[in-house]
Amino acid sequence: MASDYIKSFGFPRWGEYGRDQDTTALRMCDYTGCSETGDHPAPKTPGSSERWYFCQSHAAEYNRNWNFFEGMSEEEARRHQDDGSQSSDAFAHARTFEWSGAADESGFSSSEQAAFDTLELDAGADQTMIKRHYRKLAKQFHPDANRGDPEAAERFYKIQAAYDLLREKSF
After folding, report:
1. Per residue in 77-114, pLDDT tens?
2. Handedness of CA 74, 80, 83, 89 (dihedral sign)
């Protein structure tokens, strides 16, 4: 009786540790003959929500041999590839690329030329000049230095965008 009292002593548990815990079910690797746990899901077929569960080595083997177009007719595969190219083309028209443009005879795109104009520089200025002009104009048009002036704030944002474009380029 005394030993039962000691085992069940303590709040909030009324028994020894682990007494009420259920066993945890482990998913085994779906590869035939493998006795490892299957922690890595892999699709059974393209577009399917059904999954295989493999151990790490069998998941790597499965991925190496994965053929997305397996089971599709040639026409279906071509249609699927065409659908993918349209979505990537739509990405090219996103707002992220608003500074992009085709290069003219000077070797600079229209967006790069506009960025040089915004920073009041000649095309092809080196990085030192770009940085110097950016800092000068940023101080001049910064919203904190021009409180309540929306035109100065707009100019500052254009200067920032121009500098972001040109600092990545090597001329």
Report:
1. 788 777 654 444 444 444 444 444 444 556 677 788 88
2. negative
Q: Tell me which of 1.20.58.760, 3.75.10.10, 1.10.287.110, 1.10.150.170 is the CATH number of domain 99-167.
A: 1.10.287.110
Instruction: List CB contacts of 51: < 8 A, sequence separation 6 or more.
Output: 41, 42, 43, 44
CA distance 35 to 47: 28
Sequence ranges of the domains in the chain: 26-93, 99-167
List of E strands, 7-151: 40-43, 51-54
CB atoms near residue 58 (< 10 Å)? 20
pTM for the structure as a whole? 0.40
Q: Nearest-CA neighbor of 55 among 33, 32, 35, 38? A: 38
Nearest to 134 by CA among 147, 150, 118: 118
Angle between helices 127-141 and 150-167 (to 10 degrees): 160
Of 36, 25, 81, 84, which Cα lies nearest the Cα of 59? 36
Taking the CA atoms of residue 134, residue 139, residue 140 and residue 144 in that order, the dihedral angle to the nearest 10 degrees is 130
Give the residues across from 19 on adjacent strands.
none
